[in-house]
Design brief:
Length: about 220
């Protein structure tokens, strides 16, 4: 893997997870919650968004073994520090929780579509555009689809669990909330101990969406 491609890929990954979180805070602001704004989280500056595990340690655990052994890098996975949101400030709590939870995922899908559009426009031009640029745009498509699909999993604390929670009847929602204490441990188990089924599902869905975007 070319060093410049690796470095720029990491930048694209970090930008994508930061946009994901900023959109949560921005949509929350539109529904009346100023928490993220007051805490300085509505910014693309990466510093306030760094999560020691999700932004630094997890990508390092994925990258370093591949770099040391020369084997292909597996799916890059990362997340930023969750943007603080207080649903009690929403003008419409149920609708606000749905839209705020879905905002990050939709932002990643939008970034994937934008990268695909730029790639297809450049590919239609008579001149040849740099190979590195094409690879980076394709990486932008795939990593944002991967982040979007991953975050749609209905496992707390991922966005998919909050989208589902916002639509469940009250009694079912109370039962589902009990999973929150185990959700992060379940994610770690699926990622590091029993990853094959998870990544087979994610790769299938990412491949499907990639084809829809023309690749």
């Amino acid at each position: 893997m070319q060093p410049e491609f690796l470095a720029l890929s990491i930048i694209i990954l970090l930008f994508s997870v930061i946009v994901h979180e900023v959109m949560h805070g921005y949509v929350a602001l539109k529904f009346g919650d100023h928490t993220a704004q007051k805490m300085g989280r509505l910014t693309l500056n990466p510093i306030p968004h760094i999560d020691p595990f999700g932004t630094i340690l997890l990508p390092a655990l994925i990258l370093i073994p591949s770099l040391l052994t020369g084997t292909p890098v597996g799916p890059l996975l990362a997340w930023a520090k969750p943007v603080p949101v207080n649903p009690l400030n929403f003008s419409n709590i149920r609708k606000g929780e749905l839209f705020v939870s879905a905002a990050g995922v939709l932002a990643n899908f939008a970034l994937a579509a934008l990268c695909a559009l730029i790639f297809h426009i450049l590919n239609s031009l008579p001149m040849v555009f740099p190979e590195l640029l094409g690879r980076l745009l394709l990486f932008g498509v795939r990593i944002n689809l991967f982040l979007g699909v991953f975050n749609l999993l209905p496992i707390p604390p991922l966005d998919g669990s909050k989208v589902l929670l916002s639509q469940l009847p009250y009694n079912l929602a109370k039962q589902y909330q009990k999973l929150e204490r185990y959700g992060f441990l379940l994610l770690l188990f699926l990622i590091f101990i029993f990853p094959t089924p998870l990544f087979l599902l994610l790769n299938f869905l990412v491949g499907l969406f990639t084809k829809i975007l023309g690749f």
